[in-house]
Design the sequence.
């Protein structure tokens, strides 16, 4: 052997130790890299959610373009095309001028008559109207035809044949004017004598001959005070007025001329401007003292709907002169006599932007149909505005507070993201979804925690090892069942059957525990010489038949029990006596199905926690004279409590994130109701339902990502708290 060389056995031991050291270092490196990868993945998910939500926090921006020269008399009304390339302005000299906004060039000019005393615009139908001193109103339709040639968009403005409508006697002064164009043209004007003149012009086409006949109806409405502002509903069948003494009026034009106006007080300051938002249900009211409020009809106990002041915005220092509503959402732009501008949103109650006019007051204000721009027009000049307000519907109050939605009797938490109507008011409260998530989790854990923890305790501490080898794998195999299968069975098999045997389920809650206790009591009364022949922990074979028999007996007697206790129908009895409707797919069905999915997880972790308690502790307790149950309850259970708590928290996370079972087994109704007989909608199920239909980058899209972040934060907070509690319990019971 060479000098300094190790003997062969020593060399082999040294090589083995070196390989083990390298393997340990490699394993430690893999574990460290894997842990960092998990942390990085979680942080990447969080960063992605924050990036998608960040645009919601961006404030609205309003950019003023260069002022353009505007020929003629001061404008009284204006319209914009949807591409913001042209503006049609009706001057008080009775001339419609169409201006190209790119360079201010005059594209079209059409006189309607002489000088005007009042003017109005109808952006919905594209009409301009002006009232002259002769008591007549001229209505001119304005169109912006769009064509594409060689990939270039061209807008061709046109002013159609005007209609002359005799509204009042010659010489009658008109204080305010409102118009709705189209085939059913309606014009309303406030006369100097305090009355309101309304003319409805209807064109009817004979489907056989094609002949068009015109029908006009004129009526005079009485007003309790001089009217300073008028606004017509989208269909021309509702008329709103604002008086100089601060009252808001509404006439139903379907009811005839004799129908009195509905009155509502807006305070002592006079009403100076009115505008209806998209949908024609919300009325924006501006007043002389700068007050700005939103009103709509609210159903009362007598069944009638009456105007109510719903929300107020911050007051302006001067009178509100003009209000222009967006045709895309419930945003609106206002201008004041003091030269202030403001952009607001009705549903969220947000003041999106405030600024100052570039050159004093505006005589007319118009918003583009898409809501992405506006036009300020004053004597001799017009100023285009660019509006960037991507998500005006979202605010903390709209997402988490009660909101008073159009037509609702009171503020409420509501989730209803879409409808078939373009004028639909989105309702994006996350509170019903959070409540549904907690509701589903609560009902699932009510079933899963007792069965999972107590089953794990019995299996680990009392059951015979031969049975353990069958029970533990069998319960763990339950975790391999796909959620979609459980949801399918719960929706199509369990829910309809549970409706018919629900009284039996209630009876089982008492009969099954009683049967188990009775069977255990009988087993304990059997002589020791007989039970000693049965392996320890095998007494479950005697208790299980009693439990099965009790459950089967309850089901067999369900119909009889329902007849005796509930008058033949439990759902009808529940609705009649408690006022709770019974939904077939309810929280109890979800609790059973989702509990079935959560039980294996809680069982497996809790069973490991019980099994990992050192046997010396149990042996010492038994040696000191404690029986098996005392040992388990006072020694094993406290020692295993950190692991049991972890099992419950993991089960909680599984229930919170469950999607398919909730999606299939509930009515998927986002309601604020803790009744076990109603359905619900969870955050995860809502994301699964809504995200395929949400336009990328839209408000609903961002809201769903916000819901995902909220779900992420909930589970992270619960798991963090659970980990802290687990470490505290471990330190507390480490001395046992």
Sequence:
């Amino acid at each position: 052997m060479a000098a300094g060389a190790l003997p062969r056995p020593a060399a082999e031991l040294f090589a083995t130790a070196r390989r083990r050291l390298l393997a340990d270092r490699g394993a430690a490196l893999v574990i460290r890299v894997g842990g960092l990868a998990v942390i990085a993945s979680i942080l990447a998910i969080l960063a992605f959610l924050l990036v998608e939500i960040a645009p919601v926090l961006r404030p609205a921006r309003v950019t003023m373009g260069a002022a353009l020269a505007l020929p003629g008399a001061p404008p009284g009304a204006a319209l914009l095309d949807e591409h913001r390339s042209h503006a049609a302005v009706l001057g008080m000299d009775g001339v419609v001028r169409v201006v190209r906004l790119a360079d201010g060039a005059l594209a079209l000019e059409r006189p309607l008559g002489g000088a005007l005393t009042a003017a109005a615009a109808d952006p919905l139908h594209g009409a301009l109207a002006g009232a002259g001193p002769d008591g007549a109103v001229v209505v001119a339709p304005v169109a912006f035809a769009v064509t594409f040639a060689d990939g270039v968009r061209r807008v061709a403005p046109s002013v159609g044949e005007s209609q002359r409508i005799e509204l009042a006697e010659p010489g009658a002064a008109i204080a305010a004017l409102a118009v709705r164009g189209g085939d059913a043209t309606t014009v309303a004007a406030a006369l100097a004598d305090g009355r309101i003149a309304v003319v409805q012009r209807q064109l009817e086409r004979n489907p056989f001959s094609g002949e068009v006949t015109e029908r006009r109806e004129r009526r005079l409405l009485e007003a309790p005070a001089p009217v300073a502002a008028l606004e017509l509903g989208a269909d021309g069948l509702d008329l709103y007025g604002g008086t100089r003494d601060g009252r808001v009026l509404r006439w139903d034009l379907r009811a005839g001329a004799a129908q009195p106006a509905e009155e509502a007080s807006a305070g002592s300051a006079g009403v100076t401007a009115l505008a209806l938002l998209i949908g024609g249900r919300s009325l924006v009211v501006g007043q002389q003292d700068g007050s700005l409020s939103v009103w709509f009809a609210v159903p009362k106990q007598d069944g009638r709907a009456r105007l109510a002041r719903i929300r107020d915005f911050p007051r302006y220092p001067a009178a509100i002169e003009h209000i222009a509503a967006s045709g895309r959402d419930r945003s609106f732009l206002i201008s004041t006599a003091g030269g202030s501008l403001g952009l607001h949103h009705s549903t969220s109650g947000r003041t999106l932007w405030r600024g100052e006019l570039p050159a004093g007051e505006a005589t007319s204000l118009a918003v583009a149909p898409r809501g992405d721009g506006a036009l300020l027009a004053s004597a001799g000049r017009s100023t285009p505005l660019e509006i960037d307000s991507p998500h005006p519907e979202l605010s903390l109050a709209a997402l988490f507070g009660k909101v008073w939605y159009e037509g609702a009797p009171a503020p409420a938490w509501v989730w209803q993201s879409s409808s078939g109507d373009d004028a639909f008011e989105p309702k994006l409260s996350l509170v019903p979804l959070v409540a549904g998530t907690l509701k589903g989790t609560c009902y699932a854990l009510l079933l899963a925690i007792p069965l999972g923890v107590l089953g794990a305790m019995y299996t680990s501490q009392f059951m015979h090892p031969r049975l353990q080898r069958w029970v533990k794998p069998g319960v763990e195999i339950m975790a391999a069942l796909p959620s979609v299968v459980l949801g399918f069975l719960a929706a199509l098999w369990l829910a309809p059957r549970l409706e018919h045997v629900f009284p039996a389920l209630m009876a089982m809650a008492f009969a099954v525990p009683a049967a188990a206790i009775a069977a255990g009591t009988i087993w304990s009364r059997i002589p020791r010489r007989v039970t000693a022949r049965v392996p320890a922990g095998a007494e479950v074979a005697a208790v299980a038949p009693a439990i099965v028999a009790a459950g089967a007996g309850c089901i067999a007697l369900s119909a009889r029990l329902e007849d005796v206790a509930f008058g033949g129908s439990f759902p009808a009895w529940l609705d009649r006596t408690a006022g709770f409707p019974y939904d077939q797919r309810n929280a109890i069905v979800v609790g059973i199905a989702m509990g079935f999915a959560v039980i294996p997880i809680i069982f497996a972790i809790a069973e490991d926690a019980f099994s990992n308690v050192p046997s010396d502790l149990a042996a010492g307790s038994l040696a000191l004279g404690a029986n098996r149950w005392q040992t388990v309850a006072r020694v094993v259970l406290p020692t295993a409590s950190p692991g049991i708590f972890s099992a419950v928290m993991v089960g909680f996370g599984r229930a919170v994130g469950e999607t398919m079972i909730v999606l299939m087994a509930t009515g998927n109704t986002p309601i604020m109701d803790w009744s076990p007989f109603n359905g619900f909608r969870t955050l995860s199920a809502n994301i699964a339902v809504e995200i395929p239909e949400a336009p990328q980058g839209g408000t609903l899209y961002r809201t769903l990502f916000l819901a995902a972040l909220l779900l992420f934060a909930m589970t992270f907070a619960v798991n963090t708290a659970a980990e802290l509690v687990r470490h505290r319990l471990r330190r507390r019971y480490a001395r046992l």
DSSP finds 16 helices and 32 strands in the chain. The radius of gyration is 37 Å. The mean pLDDT is 86. The first strand starts at residue 61 and ends at 64.
